[in-house]
């Protein structure tokens, strides 16, 4: 039985992070050739955390490094079928306590990095779509691009920008056979989430990590947080031909969290 992505070529930015690594592993399982682009080979995970594609050193804030990564893919594979823009950071401050340098840095990674990776992937994506199947760009927004967690003002702003950019790219490049979507996760158990709850921001509020994660699960209708594999499942579908009619959409994956009215507290 062949995989859903047999013979496809994929590049995943942030490919050595929690979600990125799970996406790379799923793509490999589905038969794709996978390039994991990140700042280091182990990323936010333990070294040797499992097979997750060929590592390419790439800083998404560097246009030169992005060009070099695309040249590597072009030299090895000649085309690119799937680009996943999963690289991102979080900044735990209100705007009053956000420096201009920090503001510019989070936009450089979360928004400009998405723009640059897509911009320089387009020639390779066009080659793939010319072969008869649609190419796919999958960006990473967040449920924080629709609503807001306290203390994450700059992060929320970047994700709103990614949402708008995704729609615009889908309109511009759909006629070229390139689909563009964004996944908007809620709480996913990753090193970033655990760092938020362990950090000085708005997360834990003094509670232990285990207690806070239990409380987070309890407020979800599904009574669970997401896993990187949950996200990878949706990414895999959006990358495949089964999703050929899906483009320009913001796919919220949050266990029903944003579907419910927040209960009054007496």
From TrEMBL:
Coiled-coil annotated residue ranges, if any: none
Gene3D superfamilies: NAD(P)-binding Rossmann-like Domain
UniProt key word rRNA processing: no
CDD domains in the record: SDR_c
SUPFAM superfamilies, per database record: NAD(P)-binding Rossmann-fold domains
Gene Ontology molecular function: oxidoreductase activity
Record carries keyword Hydrolase: no
One Pfam family per UniProt: adh_short_C2
Domain of life: Bacteria
Keyword terms, alphabetized: Oxidoreductase
Family as reported in the entry's similarity comment: Belongs to the short-chain dehydrogenases/reductases (SDR) family.
Name of this chain's protein: Short-chain dehydrogenase
Lineage: Bacteria, Pseudomonadati, Pseudomonadota, Alphaproteobacteria, Rhodobacterales
